[in-house]
Amino acid sequence: MSAVPAEPAAAPFVVAALYQFRALPDPEGLRERLLALGQAEGLCGTLIVAHEGLNGTVAGSRTGIDRLRAALHAEGFDRLEDKESWATEQPFKRFKVRLKTEIVTMGVPVEPTSQAGQYVAAQDWNALITAPDVVVIDTRNRYEVKAGTFEGAVNPEIDSFREFPAWLDAHADELSGKRVAMFCTGGIRCEKSTSLLRARGYQDVFHLQGGILKYLEDVPETQSRWQGECFVFDGRVTVGHGLREGGAAMCHSCGWPLTPEERDHLQYEEGVSCQHCHAQTTAAQKAAFRDRQRLYDAQAR
């Protein structure tokens, strides 16, 4: 479990991103217990439970998050990959515990508990990714990469993690004879992507332990090879070095993270469109989006 850094006084909501691959004989029963605990503690966010383990991001009070961790430890989750950051406002609207077939969906069976690549600690990542024989691959979706990525990383240009196996098949020759270093937001997608590479015969496969979030937490900005901000799946949209809340806002039409400059673009209209999706929606759709935004603004007053 990651060490917990000091909590900023101005950010009362603790945001915990956590996962562990572990065989669960009764995911349905675990779902009911976690749902009851989260509701009792006023948590918000989503936990995903499957036969292969648990994954999710939740936010709440210091006490609520600590009680969730204690409950998970009592359930046998003793090797949680667990990272904390903070938010000035609750970044989620409700609390959900979902049952799924995979805790992160790739669609290809792999064995992450026994076959994942070698972990690389955040403080050792720079030395690995600057080596001439290393190919660095960003396993995230294209809209996440748009917000920021590591210098020199390959962007597979995928819209879903399900597309990664096909991308690997199409680019296998480019990886032949290379060491492969992979990264994602918190580490979970790399557990599966590196397992897939090893299952297909690649030997020198590495991934960033704790993901980008751990790197931004531990590596000083003056030494960082990260460019931009890191997309997160909550109301903050992005975070930067030190896991400070970033400056991006999401286009609620297409989901892209937008910089302040992009929000100044003539085609940006809050809740309706941005330069990336303006041409992809009809006038009728834009009118419906405006109605939705007016309703949201009225509720927020």
From TrEMBL:
It comes from the Bacteria. InterPro entries: Rhodanese-like_dom (IPR001763), Rhodanese-like_dom_sf (IPR036873), TrhO (IPR020936), TRHO_N (IPR040503). Its EC number is 1.14.-.-. One of its GO terms (biological process) is tRNA modification. It catalyses: uridine(34) in tRNA + AH2 + O2 = 5-hydroxyuridine(34) in tRNA + A + H2O. Residues 130-224 form the Rhodanese domain. GO terms for molecular function: oxidoreductase activity, acting on paired donors, with incorporation or reduction of molecular oxygen; transferase activity. PROSITE patterns: RHODANESE_3. Keywords: Oxidoreductase, Transferase, tRNA processing. It holds the Pfam family UPF0176_N. The keyword Secreted does not apply. HAMAP family: TrhO. Belongs to the TrhO family. Catalyzes oxygen-dependent 5-hydroxyuridine (ho5U) modification at position 34 in tRNAs. This is tRNA uridine(34) hydroxylase. It comes from Deinococcus arboris. The gene is trhO.
